[in-house]
Specification:
Double Stranded RNA Binding Domain, 3 domains, D-Maltodextrin-Binding Protein, domain 2, 5-stranded mixed β-sheet, 309 residues, alpha/beta
Length: 309
């Protein structure tokens, strides 16, 4: 491991507090497995972070959180890209590949309201801020009397906007608030039956250069089999539906390694929540990716050719 002692292993990440925490989690895990490693974190500004006044759908989709980090990976500025799995596109640039996934955090979403009201308690006409079409569609499907407005920014920015009265409530991923030790801000944590999460939600995924065996050997011990099994099934579902923030798509797989079985629920919806197509699968883990693809094909056929813009 002489090379690893002298050659820094560079982790590329977004600069938000949550992204930096996730990168530190990866660095700590690497050093815990191999104390001789020299690991550095490189902060990279992404288009998705810089443009805050429009929804992701309006500026090109969630790939805007990853493309600058991927470019740094391709040109050798960094050796490992750390992403929230839900921000990753289903296809990688040539020369890059999906690496290990760390153990998954809580997959649920939660609501934060300025008056401490739950989803059912919010008065008719209340304004809910979210940048996610997935959250917007599912919210309006159960509460069409609410008004949804675009709400961009990292966790701290969105909490500030809420405190300033720009909205009556907002929705955030539980995983992020747990990592930031801010679970106290939630008014209500929503179960997946009410609000199905984004594909990959709660998981930290690594992206690597294809064929970089030094780095692949270093990160291999970080992979969590249960998480990777679940997220790969969800991503197979998403890939069929071409999900890039242009349509509300949600999916959640739950694997049981002891029994060798996996369950999945997925949906695609109109942004206004007026139409929701959903499906489910249950079977053996070995068939997970095929079942994910099959679920995507079912909903693609059910929704029709013009459903996804």
């Amino acid at each position: 491991m002489e090379e690893n002692q002298t050659t820094p292993l560079k982790i590329g990440t977004r600069g938000s507090p949550l992204a930096m925490l996730q990168a530190e989690e990866v660095r700590n895990a690497l050093i815990a497995n191999q104390p001789e490693l020299n690991v550095e974190i490189v902060e990279i500004s992404t288009t998705g972070d810089r443009i805050q006044d429009r929804t992701l759908a309006a500026i090109g989709g969630k790939g805007l959180f990853t493309k600058e980090i991927e470019q740094a990976l391709l040109d050798g500025t960094v050796d490992i890209a750390v992403h929230s799995a839900k921000d990753m596109l289903t296809e990688f640039p040539e020369g890059l590949t999906l690496g290990p996934m760390l153990p998954r955090e809580d997959t649920r979403d939660g609501i934060i309201s300025s008056n401490g009201q739950t989803l059912s308690d919010l008065p008719s006409g209340s304004v809910v801020g979210t940048a996610s079409l997935r959250r917007q569609a599912q919210l309006l499907a159960v509460r069409p009397d609410l008004k949804v407005i675009p709400f961009r920014g990292n966790v701290q920015t969105r909490l500030r906007k809420l405190s300033e009265g720009q909205a009556d409530a907002t929705l955030l991923a539980v995983a992020g608030l747990k990592r930031l030790d801010r679970m106290d801000v939630f008014t209500q944590v929503l179960d997946p039956e009410t609000l199905l999460p984004a594909v990959g939600q709660g998981a930290i995924a690594l992206e690597l250069r294809a064929g970089d065996h030094r780095v692949m050997r270093a990160v291999e011990p970080l992979n969590d089999t249960k998480t990777a099994t679940e997220v790969n099934m969800e991503r197979a579902f998403l890939a069929v539906l071409d999900g890039s923030c242009r349509a509300p798509i949600a999916g959640l797989a739950t694997a049981n390694l002891d029994s060798g079985r996996i369950e999945f629920r997925g949906l695609i919806a109109k942004p206004d929540g007026s139409i929701v197509h959903s499906t489910s699968r249950e079977g053996m883990i070995d068939d997970a990716v095929d079942m994910g693809e099959d679920a995507g094909l079912e909903l693609k056929a059910e929704a029709g050719p013009n459903f996804i813009p």
